[in-house]
Amino acid sequence: MTLPEIRLLLDSSMVVLIWMIQLIVYPSFKYCNKEHLVSWHQKYSNRLAGIVIPLMLGQLVISIYQLYATINYDRVIYALFVWSLWISTFLIFVPLHKTIASGNSTSIHLKQLVRKNWLRTILWSLLFLYSLYFQLSI
User: What is the pTM (predicted TM-score) of this model?
Assistant: First the structure.
């Protein structure tokens, strides 16, 4: 398997995952009472981390490696997408998830999680489409 094929595999995996999270998982949080939400969120976060972390790390490693190997338009755009996703995840979503995990979340936090996650949903969708276009053009 070539590096562009691995890149496309990682990106397609993340786009499917983020759409499921956006349309099914995050909206379901509002149906949990606070105690159940804290318990479920802990289980959900731990289980999902085993899937998300390797995929995101793979994207990050590929973005760095490609820039190290050769800097060109495609690789810079790809890196900007990936790095933007990492930054938004740690600056916006990690704090929101910590609030939920602490039991201090309100319906406002849960609505923010869904609303703000559209940013990542759109970015990962565009990243996937960009990688698909790149793969089809080689």
Answer: 0.93
